[in-house]
Amino acid sequence: MAEARPATPVRPLLLLGDVMAERTLGMLDQVGAVWYLFAEAIHWIWRSFTVRKVRLGRTAIISQIVRVGVRSVFIISLVSSCVGLILALQMAPPLDEFGRKDAVANITGVAVLRELGPLIAAIVLTGFAGAAIAAEIGTMVVGEEIEALEAHALNPVRFLVLPRVIATVISMTALAVLSDLVALVASWGISMFALGIPSQLYIDNTLEQVKRIDFLTGIGKATVFGLLIGLIACTNGLRVTGGAAGVGKATTGTVVQSVVSIVVADLLFTAMFYAIGWV
Questions:
Q1: 86 and 104 in contact (C-beta within 8 Å)?
Q2: pLDDT tens-digit series, residues 76-120
Q3: Do 229 and 122 touch, CB atoms closer than 8 A?
Q4: Cα 124 from chain centroid (whole Å)
Q5: pTM of the predicted protein model
Q6: Which pLDDT tens digit goes with each residue over 184-213?
Q7: What local confidence, expressed as pLDDT, does residue 79 receive?
Q8: What are the φ/ψ torsions at residue 91 (nearest 5 degrees)?
């Protein structure tokens, strides 16, 4: 009789395949939910312009801008200033070896305006405001407040989601400008006082290197980042199940998904700008 061969160890591979399939389906489901919420928000924005009885709540939007954007100013300014200082201090020694320490201004200006300013503001805003939005809406779902709105014929997307999404878009755009400015000023200050680069030389190099397209592409990214943060936070909040544990899971998921989405979107924008010659 032929000797029996040992069984092929396929069970771990099957388990890995099941996990990957489950994660892929979950990701697609989340993308679909975010896209559906985006379409619903666009529908209500369009109706606000075409139907006289439908109006966007200015008071709700302004209060969310204060809650999301104004209260994030300090922490974003702090983080951006630290990044500006780090960039200048890290780049000065290697540039000094080539006798171009003053090129710190050139590199910092482009790096901050194109990438670091919007990216830092978006990541900080995700932890500061995105998680709070998801937790707030999730708590409303657990407390059956969403069902109460629907029972009174009030659409949750119009009255809860839309003000928060608009607020995150506006706040993110403004905070990106603030982040750019603070990082550049911090780099200029440390370069002038610690690195021995003359103030006027730093300013001249920055203005010579930085172009309008650098600023505009960064602000365009920031607007999309704000849209992603608002939509992901609201989607996770509305999909909360399981009581308090579900609220915590939605909050954690919002931070992780937002950061990943922001980085992927940044990569896609950079590749697109590179292809059309804007970098």
A1: no
A2: 999 999 999 999 999 999 998 888 888 999 999 999 999 999 999
A3: yes
A4: 8
A5: 0.90
A6: 999 999 999 999 899 999 999 999 999 999
A7: 95
A8: -85, -25
**88-118 burial string, b = 16+ CB within 10 Å, else e?**
beebbeebeeeeebbbbbbbbbbbbbbbbbb
CA distances from 162 to 41, 64, 68, 113 (A): 6, 10, 14, 29
| DSSP letter (8 states) at residue 130 | I
Instruction: Specify the length of the chain in residues.
Output: 279
Q: Is 144 exposed, middle or buried (0-12, 13-18, 19+ CB in 10 A)?
A: exposed
Reading the block at residue 270, the tokens are 């950079």
Using DSSP, state whether 196 is helix, strand or coil: coil
Look at residue 187 in the predicted model and tell me its pLDDT: 94
The pLDDT score that the predictor gives to residue 2 is 52
Q: What residues contact 254, with CB distance under 8 A and at least 6 apart?
A: 126, 130, 131, 133, 134, 232, 233, 236, 237
**Residue type for 247, please?**
V
